[in-house]
Amino acid sequence: MVKKALSQELAGNCYPGRGIVVGRSEDGRYAVAAYFIMGRSANSRNRIFVEDGEGIRTQAFDPSRMEDPSLIIYAPVRVFGTNLIITNGDQTDTVVQGLLDGKTFGESLRSRTFEPDAPNYTPRISALLDIRNGAYEYKMNILKSADGDPSSCERFNFSYENPKAGEGHFLHTYLSDGDPLPSFEGEPQRVDITGGIDDFTSMVWENLNKDNKVSLFVRYIEIETGRYETRIVNLHQNGESNE
After folding, report:
1. CA distance 123 to 144
2. Other beta carbons less than 10 A from residue 56's beta carbon
3. What is the Cα–Cα distance from 91 to 71, expressed in whole angstroms?
């Protein structure tokens, strides 16, 4: 698979939906993870990311305008031991419980399917970063309907051992905008990982569509020590607007 510029992949798609990027920094020192959300409806756009322990959760920016919290209020990022778990829904907690029960990442997600939001049937996308004893690997998973048929769930698991410096993989919910929204297809896209945490965060945020972007989470984890830095960008707290 040809490695592509993440900036171009983001800028060239007005509505990738929710997205996960996982990889390794250019200098090889850091495991890199990013998660972003976008929204077309007022309810989806009325959100921010807030810290929740070592992870984050979504929260209504204006509680008085919240219409339906299902599918949009959840904890997308959790830490479990040496694992960082990122998902686009409440399956984050499913993975954590599965790991507690001795299941693997993929086994934990066997109890879940795509989201029940007909006619889109939005895929559930998930990732797990495993950093221990100076070693690093990550896994990604997507659960999607079979070409929009809700009677069939397709399950795909991807594993990346000892990832190369300066690159990663990008998994998102939609191929593009549409009605219904077309689900992601194929393997996670191989993309470049450039710069330190601040430059990387700025690059991702600036290349997300200005009319649809809502929030962004980025974390750089030092592989040798486990120490990490986090950045959170919220449209509603950043002096911007897509209203």
Report:
1. 4
2. 23
3. 11
- pLDDT in the model for residue 130: 98
Q: Can you list the residues of the chain whose pLDDT is less than 70? A: 239, 241-243
1: in domain: no
Question: How far is it, in rounded angstroms, from Cα 219 to Cα 32?
Answer: 6
Q: What is the largest CA-CA distance in the chain?
A: 47
Kindly state the helix (H) or strand (E) to which residue 43 belongs, with its residue range: helix 42-45
Q: Is the pTM of this model over 0.85?
A: yes
Token pair belonging to 177: 């905008």
CA distances for 239 relative to 127, 131, 209, 242, angstroms: 30, 35, 16, 11
Tell me the two tokens of residue 35. Answer: 């998660």
3-state secondary structure of 206: helix
CB 158 within 8 A of CB 187: yes
Per-residue pLDDT tens over the stretch 59-70 = 999 999 999 888
CATH number at residue 24: 3.60.20.20
Kindly state whether residue 168 falls inside one of the protein's structural domains.
Answer: yes
E strand or H helix that includes residue 105: helix 105-108
> Torsions phi, psi of 26, nearest 5?
-60, -35
pLDDT digits (tens, 9 = 90+) for 173-216: 999 999 999 999 999 999 999 999 999 999 999 999 999 999 99
36 contacts 216 by C-beta, under 8 angstroms: yes
* Residue at 243 is within a domain: no
Query: How many structural domains is the chain composed of?
Result: 1
Question: Which tokens belong to 199?
Answer: 């430059």
Q: Alpha-carbon distance 54 to 71, whole Å?
A: 22
- Whole-angstrom Cα distance, residue 183 to residue 105? 22
